[in-house]
Design brief:
The complex is a heterodimer of chains A (183) and B (160).
Chain A: H1 5-17, E1 23-28, E2 35-40, E3 43-48, H2 54-62, E4 66-68, H3 72-82, H4 99-108, E5 117-118, H5 119-125, H6 132-140, E6 153-154, H7 167-176
Parallel strand pairs in A: 1-4, 5-6
Antiparallel strand pairs in A: 1-2, 2-3
Helix pairs in contact in A: 5-6
Chain B: H1 10-29, H2 33-48, H3 57-76, H4 99-102, H5 111-122, H6 127-134, H7 138-158
Classes of the chains: A alpha/beta (183), B mainly alpha (160).
C-alpha cells in the first residue's frame, strides 16, 4: 500500500520535531550533478558526489536514525553559490575527524573564493611542511567538499592533480569562481 | 557463527516497511489508520538506536503496529470484545481456508483475533512472531488465529 506524500512528509516532520533524528539527508540538484547532503543537529556533516552507500556510512559515524528530510538552508546556500551570488558559506559544520585533519580543514576553509593554493602551502600553514602528500589525503577524504573548498588546492606546478568528484568538476568549480584562466 | 546483521539506516527500514504497515493498520483500524501508522514509526524511531539485532525488523515493526492498533481499539470502544487469545474450542489449523474471500470481514472480529488473522494470512508472519506481537504465547497466537478464522466463516454464512 502506498503511503501518500502528505502522510510521509508529516511523519518526517514529526520525527525531526521530536528530536529523533541523528542525521538528515537530502539530494540537491546542481550544475555539477546531484549532490548528497547531510546534517546532524550540530551542523552540515556531508556533501558527496556519490550518494551510493552514504546512508550506511552516516549511520556508522553519527547514529542509525538516518532519515531523508529537506535541508532547505543548505540547498539555498548551494544554489546561491552556483549562481555566483555567494562566496562563502554561513552553515554550521559538524566535523568528526582526527586533530590533524581538523587542522588542515580549518586552514582550507580560509582559502578565499577564486584563489588557488597548493598542498605544500597548506601543509606548511598547519606546521607540517613536507606533509603535502598527507594534506592531499585529507583533501581526498574531505567530508564536505565545495563548502570546504578543496577544489582550490592544486599541485605545486599548478596542475589540478585530483578531486574526489573528478577533475572535470574541479575545473567547473574553479571556472565558476573565476580562478582559472583558459590555458 | 553468523556475523551479526548491521542495523540498517532508519530510512531503509522505513522505506521497506511503511507501505505494508499502513495496509495492516487500515485492515485493523480503517480510517484511523494514518494516526496509528505515524505513531508506529515514531515509536520505532524512539527505540531504534537501542536495537541490537536487525534480523527480525519486519516482525518488530508489526509488533509495534499491533500494540498501537490494539490500544486504539481498546481505547475507542470498551464494549468491543477483546478476545483473550483463548480459543473458543480447540481446533486444528483451518484447512482449505481462502483468506482472500474472507478478508473483507476481518473488521468484524474482536481485536486480538483480527490482528492474529491479518498477520498470519495477510502478512504471512509465523505464529512465534504473532505471539510476540500480541504479547502472548505461540499457542495462544495459534488459537486466536483459529478462533478468528472460524468466526469469519460463521460471519460469512450469516451474510445475506
Amino acid at each position: 500500500m502506498n503511503v501518500s506524500p502528505d502522510l510521509d512528509a508529516r511523519f518526517r516532520a514529526a520525527a525531526l520535531a521530536e528530536g529523533l533524528v541523528d542525521v538528515r539527508f537530502d539530494l540537491v540538484a546542481s550544475p555539477v550533478g546531484e549532490l548528497f547532503v547531510a546534517s546532524t543537529p550540530r551542523g552540515l556533516c556531508r556533501i558527496s558526489y556519490t550518494p551510493a552507500g552514504q546512508e550506511e556510512e552516516l549511520a556508522r559515524l553519527f547514529g542509525s536514525r538516518v532519515l531523508r528530510i529537506p535541508l532547505d538552508e543548505v540547498r539555498r546556500e548551494l544554489d546561491e553559490y552556483f549562481a555566483g551570488r555567494r562566496r562563502s558559506f554561513d552553515l554550521a559544520l559538524d566535523l568528526r575527524v582526527t586533530p590533524f585533519n581538523a587542522a588542515v580543514l580549518a586552514e582550507l576553509a580560509r582559502v578565499p573564493y577564486g584563489r588557488l593554493d597548493t598542498y605544500g602551502d597548506l601543509a606548511a600553514r598547519v606546521g607540517r611542511p613536507g606533509a603535502a602528500r598527507a594534506v592531499g589525503g585529507v583533501m581526498n577524504r574531505n567530508p564536505i567538499p565545495i563548502v570546504l573548498p578543496c577544489h582550490r588546492i592544486v599541485g605545486a606546478n599548478g596542475s589540478l592533480t585530483g578531486y574526489a568528484g573528478g577533475l572535470e568538476i574541479k575545473r567547473t568549480l574553479l571556472e565558476l569562481e573565476g580562478a582559472l584562466l583558459d590555458a | 557463527m553468523m556475523a551479526p546483521v548491521a542495523i540498517p539506516p532508519f530510512e531503509s527500514f522505513y522505506a521497506e516497511h511503511r507501505g505494508a504497515v499502513l495496509g495492516y493498520l487500515r485492515r485493523m483500524l480503517g480510517p484511523a489508520a494514518e494516526d496509528a501508522w505515524q505513531e508506529t514509526f515514531l515509536r520505532a524511531l524512539r527505540a531504534y538506536e537501542r536495537l541490537e539485532r536487525a534480523d527480525h525488523l519486519r516482525a518488530w515493526v508489526f509488533t509495534i503496529a499491533t500494540r498501537v492498533a490494539l490500544d486504539e481499539l481498546r481505547g475507542a470502544s470498551r464494549s468491543v470484545p477483546l478476545g483473550d487469545g483463548l480459543p473458543e474450542q480447540e481446533a486444528p489449523e483451518p484447512r482449505g481456508f481462502a483468506y482472500g474471500e474472507l478478508e473483507h470481514l476481518t473488521g468484524s472480529l474482536p481485536p486480538t483475533e483480527r490482528a492474529a488473522v491479518v498477520l498470519r494470512y495477510g502478512y504471512d508472519l509465523p505464529y512465534a512472531e504473532i505471539g510476540a506481537a500480541l504479547g502472548s504465547s505461540v499457542d495462544a497466537a495459534r488459537a486466536a488465529t483459529s478462533s478468528g478464522v472460524r468466526r469469519l466463516r460463521r460471519n460469512l454464512e450469516r451474510q445475506p
